[in-house]
Structure formats: structure tokens, C-alpha cells
Amino acid sequence: MATLPDHRGKGYASAVLDRGIWEIVFRQGRLLWFNGRSAAAQFYRARGFRQIGHERIIPGLQPHFRFSMDLSDKLLAMEERKR
Known about the structure:
- The protein is α+β, with helices and mostly antiparallel strands.
- It has helices at residues 12-26, 41-46, 72-82; strands at residues 31-37, 50-56, 64-70.
- Helix content is 39%, strand content 25%.
- A hairpin with a 7-residue loop joins strand 2 (50-56) and strand 3 (64-70).
């Protein structure tokens, strides 16, 4: 996921990310992980993702970190709301 510079800070990436998390939880996923650009690391950490390991160099791309989020609590909260 990337946002054009003129459109950053308007909440578009957050909305896409939130919808993706909701979809994973809805499908009973318990773990989300991905490679995110190093330049966007603060964006992901501010949204509760945990940075894993060292910066990775992926040929042909900008440097990346791996990020993860345990979705178990979100899944339990969704199941509680169903009751």
C-alpha cells in the first residue's frame, strides 16, 4: 500500500488498513503480518503494529521492515458482540 505524497495525512491509508484488519478478523484471522516500507514504519507502529527484526532490503524496492499484529483480542471482542 502506498499513498501519493499530495494525499498523505488525509486518513486514506488508515481507512484502507482498518478495513483490511476488520476483514481479517471477520474471517477469524488471528495474526496479520506484512512487509512495510521503512519510511512508513512510524505510521504502522502508531497503529499498534509491532516491528519485527532488522530492516530488509528487497531487490527492486525501497528498504522494508516486517510488521505484525496479534488480532486475537479483536476477534474475541467481535465474538462477544455477537452474543
